[in-house]
Amino acid sequence: xxxxxxxxxxxxxxxxxxxxxxxxQVSIADIxxxxxxxxxxxxxxxxRLQNPNNYALSAKGLVFDVAVGGEKLARGxxxxxxQVAALSESLVKVELHTSTRHWLKQVGRLLExxxxxxxxxxxxxxQDINGLGTLPFSSKGEWSRPH
Length: 147
What we know:
This protein is an alpha+beta fold. The chain has a single domain (24-141), classed as Immunoglobulin-like (Sandwich), CATH 2.60.40.1820. The protein is built from two helices and nine strands. Strands 1-2-7-5-4-8-9 form a seven-stranded antiparallel β-sheet, with helices on one face. A hairpin with a 7-residue loop joins strand 8 (117-127) and strand 9. The model has no long low-confidence stretch (mean pLDDT 84).
């Protein structure tokens, strides 16, 4: 039985090594404010997933952290199934919960310097990509206040 498992594993690895595989790109497409309480602010975060591969990608969910101005703002999880066609992109909406105190701190920075930008970073993992395991992703960008 062990020999059979090793043989199947080596066949799988050989097959995977012939694929030209590129990481999908994940970026923030939109942030919509949601419900707010004294302790917590909810946002709907829209992520853009771009698949540069010649075959479709599927994931069983994702886990991610969002940092703003170099400080961790929130952590999000989603069990939502994700499908991205070959050489295509898909938008995925997920909920993000943050401490109202942390969010107000960032808003205060922006109000003190209205012409400045807020740097953001999102780091996470797509879960169970095509049944093969997790795939980490990272994206950085800037947000400036509309005038």
